[in-house]
Write a structure and sequence with these properties.
With 375 residues, this protein is an alpha/beta fold. It is built from twelve helices and 15 strands. The chain binds pyridoxal-5'-phosphate.
Amino acid sequence: MEKFSKVRANDFQTQWAHIRETALSAMDRVGKSGWLILGNEVESFEKDLADTVGISNAVGCANGLDAIEIALRALGIQPGEKVITTPLSAFATTLAILRAGGVPIFVDVDDSGLVDLSQVSSVLEADRTIRFFVPVHLYGHALDLESLAALKKKFGTFVVEDCAQALGAKSAGAPVGTVAELAATSFYPTKNLGCLGDGGAVLSSSKEFAEVARTLRNYGQSQKYVHSILGLNSRLDEMQAAVLRTAILPKFSEWTLKRKQIAEVYLGAIRNPSIIIPATPKKSDSCWHLFPVLVEKKRASFLDHMASKGVEAGIHYPSLIPDQECMRNISNSRCLGSLARARVFANSEVSLPIHPFLSQDEVERVIAACNEWIP
Ligand SMILES: *Cc1c(COP(=O)(O)O)cnc(C)c1O
């Protein structure tokens, strides 16, 4: 019975039903070609991805974590350099900074849960030695790109935008990923543009930086058997690129629209004084990777209630990155202040299901479950 089925946080089986034919023929095309690594498929996908995002260069990588590391290394980060970032993100954001040799400096978030640009500005003002900033367009919301551009200009900061959750989001009409020298994204299956495994990309408006990223992803090899810099093995493979380009990318705008429509419905219909919907950042045309709400009292009981109604809710994220055990021994890493707002999110955020395959009935079940909850 429909009534007892789960409202899932993600639905990869239904997605497969939508892409099966085109995905299988993409795989067949690659198999028949006999070319499996760094060939025409990756090159063509990179072009189509760049066009979709509205940026001139894209470089396919093995995952989003590597894409951030590669972007920082392409910008010439030096060991021990400070990098401002957010305490509220996937751990990968900070892990990439550490792997690139950087030292994370954590700045609190704003009311939407995204790094607070005015505090970042104060930190840059107070410490002119800081050259790097890795902001995250969290939950599919776009940070204010005009403020980000102004900050970058004023302090000469190198910015790497983490767009893993926000591909397709815009701020005052400008796509995320276009302010920074380099941006990074992920094709992890849950992401808005997810592949059938792991994948990622570096984005850049600069041909030169894109070329360095291209060299870095392939052992630092600038020409065959010529290693000009120390690189990684972080290539997007032909199979994933082929599936992305011909099976998934053509659905991307339709799927993004579906997420936006569901968000509109939630925004208009969730009415419960115990459930707060955080503000969408000003100027953001969000792509709604997640639909975050704040339940400040009794989050555990709310999650139990949602589970009893068959709704799969998530938490993004239950712990702040600087509080993770492995961060204890990272010398020189600092938090600016108590990160009070980020802690509110860590303690009370709940992500409601939002993906392109939710039926109207499922959306209504999520709303009903929210509205009838009494803490
Ligand atoms: C998923 C994610 C990453 C890491 O991407 P992977 O492809 O899983 O390595 C980085 N940053 C953010 C904000 C993410 O959501």
